[in-house]
Specification:
It is globular and about 45 Å long. The protein is built from 6 helices and no strands.
Length: about 120
């Protein structure tokens, strides 16, 4: 989870992402395909988590916290629960989803390109 020292914007978006995740519990526990779950995750959860992230000052600490929250949300979405564990690398290979920090860097470069 994000610490209280994280910027308020990142804390609130993380909380909102978890709220969105909890509202879709039925979808995550249903028998729909993993591909459909990943599309739903991208549309409903990632968009909330990374909302306005291009304007954040991305420190190493914040980057780790956002990535941790993203991986935890992704694990819930695909149904990886205790005692089953997979590494972060396996998670990204299995889902073909890049880390949240990589997505934020891409969106910052896009924003920077528009500003020029």
């Amino acid at each position: 989870m994000l610490s209280l020292k994280a910027p308020p914007a990142s804390r609130s978006t993380c909380q909102l992402a978890w709220c969105a995740m909890n509202k879709l519990t039925v979808a995550w526990k249903s028998g729909i395909s993993e591909k459909a779950k990943l599309k739903l995750f991208s549309a409903c959860i990632e968009s909330v988590l990374l909302y306005s992230g291009a304007s954040w000052t991305l420190t190493d600490t914040l980057e780790k916290q956002i990535d941790t929250a993203h991986r935890a949300l992704l694990r819930v979405a695909i149904g990886v629960r205790y005692p089953n564990r997979i590494s972060s690398d396996q998670l990204h290979r299995r889902t073909h989803v890049s880390s949240a920090s990589d997505q934020l860097r891409r969106s910052r470069m896009t924003l920077f390109g528009h500003a020029l």
